[in-house]
Each structure stands twice: as C-alpha cells, then as structure tokens.
Design goal:
The protein has ten helices and twelve strands. The chain has 237 residues and is of the alpha/beta class. Helix 7 links the parallel strand 10 and strand 11. The longest helix is centred in the middle third of the chain and has 22 residues.
Length: 237
C-alpha cells in the first residue's frame, strides 16, 4: 500500500514516479517541509514506513511502539545536496522576477554559508554575480565572495538584493534601516532572519520562500524524493 499526501504539486509527480508493486510494507510519504506529528503517525498501519522531513518527539515514540519505521530525508546527504541546488535555482528565479536590474548588474549579499548558502553562492558565482557573504565560516566562503562579513552589525546599504539562508531571527530591527528602498530580500530559511513586516514597511521588497523547489521545479523535486525512497526503502525491502 502506498499513500503519498498531496500537499503540493511535487507530491502528485512523486505518486506517479513511485512503484507500489515493489513495497513489502505500507508506505506513507509526506513532503519534507511538513511536520509529521502523533496524529499523522496514528493513522499509519502497524509495521509500516513513513517518509518525511520533520517528526515530532511524540510521533517518534508512537512509531517505536507500533513497529513503524520513520525515514527522515532531510538527514540524507545526497537528498540535501539536490534539494539545496534546486532551492538555489528557485532563489535565482525569484531574484530575476523581482529585481528591476539584471542579475549581473546586482550586488548581492548571501547570509549564511551552510549547505544552502553554499549552493546559492556557487550558482551566483557561476553567473559572475557581485556577491558578498555574511557567515561565521570564513575560509570556504572566500572562494566565492568578494568580501566575507560577520553575521552581525548588518549594513544592507550597498546591496540590490539579499538572500538569507540562516534559520534564525539574527537581524535586529535597527539594522533594517540600512536597506535601500526597493531592495529585494529573499529568505530561504524556515524562520526569517528579519522582521519581514517591518522591512516591507520600510520599502524593502521582502518575502520568505518556504519549500521553494515545490513551486519552481516540482518534477525535479519529486525525482529527488523518489531517488531517496528508492535508495533507503525500495532497494532494501
């Protein structure tokens, strides 16, 4: 039995890509941005598998008591690498759509240099975008950035666009006054780094983009999920 929860377009593609005939246990699949809690876990059959990206502690406890295996795709290095690349491409598309300037004419600040920040930096560097990176991971960031800055005392005045990948509210409201009117702010994190409402009040073109691959490249996002499921479940059953 295969159940793919249709929370967005990529999940419809995923249902078509998966072959239920290869399953030896019931399989339930949630999008990686959906939090699977105790209620969802209670709906699954005993001795089944659940694939997702976020599970509550209560869901994990219930799963253990009923022989349910939980698979977190966001802990898989290969899936995370592909998901970061697709998200970076989506961020580029958002910048192209929202900026009155050509990307090559923009000066961009990338905040954070984890897996997601590195993917954004790599893509933008390939396009010769003028880019600074704010991070605590200085050494690798220098390979892509014109300047590497600390994640503190933010001065946004030089930038036409800012892309955040840090999932923490790290920018105080006082620093938002340095944004120029019309600057494009793209937040790729689960929690925005800035006060979005206040930034918009100040004239910043600011928004958060959760689950970006589901919106910009749903088929490719579904293929990444299908590859993960094939690797960790179908090939091992």
């Amino acid at each position: 039995m295969l159940t793919v929860y249709q929370s967005d377009k990529r999940m419809a593609y995923l249902a078509d890509l998966l072959d239920a005939r290869k399953l030896t246990r019931p399989l339930y699949v949630y999008a990686p941005n959906i939090l699977v809690d105790e209620a969802e876990t209670a709906q699954a059959a005993n001795d089944s598998d659940i694939v997702g990206g976020k599970f509550t502690a209560e869901a994990k406890t219930l799963a253990r008591s009923r022989g349910i295996r939980l698979f977190n795709m966001m802990e898989n290095e290969r899936f995370q690498a592909v998901n970061s690349r697709l998200t970076a491409e989506g961020a580029l598309g958002a910048l192209i759509a929202r900026s009155p300037k050509s990307v090559r004419d923009c000066r961009v600040l990338v905040m954070g240099f984890g897996r997601m920040g590195a993917a954004v930096a790599k893509l933008f560097a390939a396009l010769n975008v003028r880019m600074d990176i704010a991070t605590s991971s200085v050494r690798p960031a220098h390979a892509f950035a014109r300047r590497v800055l600390p994640l503190a005392n933010f001065d946004f005045a030089p930038y036409d666009a800012v892309v955040n990948t840090v999932p923490l509210p790290i920018v105080p409201d006082s620093d938002l006054a340095t944004f120029r009117n019309g600057t494009v702010y793209i937040d790729l994190a689960s929690t925005a780094a800035i006060n979005l409402e206040y930034a918009r009040y100040l004239g910043v073109n600011a928004d958060i983009y959760p689950a970006l691959p589901a919106k910009t490249c749903p088929l490719s996002a579904a293929e990444a999920m299908a590859a993960y499921i094939s690797e960790v479940i179908l090939c091992k059953n």
